[in-house]
Write a structure and sequence with these properties.
two-stranded antiparallel sheet; 315 residues; 2 domains; Alpha-Beta Plaits; TIM Barrel; binds iron/sulfur cluster; single chain; alpha/beta
């Protein structure tokens, strides 16, 4: 596993294990099963995990941490808390649930918020800063889908790490296209921030072109670590192979990772926006939530970027 040097002794694996998809918001894998998968990843050299307070995956991670006695596992978590007190509670929860005295990276979880987040959540930013000074978090960060927020993060002295959404198709980017985001990422890197990328496969919609999608993100100025959500050993194996160069486009087509399906997350608010984007009229609203007619759905993924809540995913 290629290791990336982020300075001050911090060496992170090029593959960051995105823990969201094993949690109750997506595949809902049991903590023990997900923990065993994390242990497989650790054995393969992965030393970096990304999660969040809202993902409810601390038990899955804790299962693995309690059974691992190898290299240190670096954990990034995040919270959408808007106040000092709320952020402190989120940090305390992570420290306690993960049985750690320090969380390596803690982000403002600001997926769909613009650059105003730094003003609107001033108390939360102050809390991150004070916890960093106290040693209870290692580095402060922001996770975002917004080009303007990445640009603003580059100017914010109290932010060390930026976790932007970027993929070859530009899926899910809030206020621009992939080139706008790539430029903002380069600006943030130029300002001394460290970055790792999320949704490099567009939430699962780009799995058919994983090789190209991964190469694109890793070619960007400022990105050398990718966070990829995985739910089984086959996906882990393929992603390790892609990063190590032992799996190419041709082999990838011969080794499908898993059968795909469209997942609509429970946090769907039933707004109906996605219905207009489906060319096959496969989506409908019932009991205040969106549902998919699997006989009509061709898993094209066109609906995913239309959801303002980012609730649709092909997995
Ligand atoms: S656009 Fe998203 S939140 Fe709105 S109904 Fe569709 S899935 Fe639900
Ligand atoms: S994946 Fe394609 S066919 Fe399926 S619901 Fe979304 S837009 Fe419609």
């Amino acid at each position: 596993m290629k290791m990336i040097d982020w300075g001050e002794g911090l060496q992170l694996s090029q593959l960051c294990f995105g823990v969201l998809p094993v949690g109750p918001m997506q595949k809902d894998v049991k903590p023990a099963e997900a923990g065993e998968l994390l242990l497989e990843a650790f054995e393969a050299g992965v030393n970096f995990l990304d999660t969040a307070q809202s993902y409810q995956t601390y038990p899955h991670i804790r299962y693995a941490l309690d059974r691992w006695d190898g290299h240190h596992i670096h954990i990034a978590s995040k919270s959408s808390a808007e106040t000092y007190e709320g952020m402190q509670e989120a940090i305390n929860e992570a420290l306690s649930a993960l049985n750690r005295n320090r969380i390596d990276i803690f982000h403002l979880h600001a997926a769909r918020v613009g650059p105003e987040v730094f003003d609107e959540r001033r108390g939360a930013v102050e809390c991150l800063q004070e916890n960093k000074e106290a040693g209870t978090i290692g580095r402060t960060g922001i996770s975002t889908h917004s080009v303007a927020a990445v640009r603003e993060a580059a100017r914010q002295e109290q932010i060390d790490v930026v976790f932007p959404l970027i993929n070859i198709a530009g899926l899910g980017i809030l206020d621009g296209d992939r080139d706008d985001m790539a430029q903002a990422i380069a600006e943030a890197a130029g300002a001394g921030k460290h970055l790792y990328a999320m949704k490099v496969y567009g939430g699962g919609n780009l799995l058919d072109e994983s090789h190209r999608a991964l190469q694109y993100v890793l070619s960007l100025d400022g990105i050398n670590i990718v966070s990829i959500g995985m739910v089984n050993s086959k996906e882990l194996e393929v992603n390790l192979g892609l990063l190590e160069g032992s799996v190419d486009e041709k082999q990838l087509k011969q080794t499908p990772t898993s059968s795909k399906r469209l997942l609509i997350a429970p946090f769907c608010v039933g707004c109906g926006t996605c219905l207009k984007s489906c060319p096959n009229e496969a989506l409908y609203i019932e009991d205040g939530q969106c549902h998919v007619d699997e006989d009509r759905c061709i898993l094209c993924g066109y609906c995913a970027p239309s959801c303002p809540e980012f609730a649709i995913r092909v997995i």
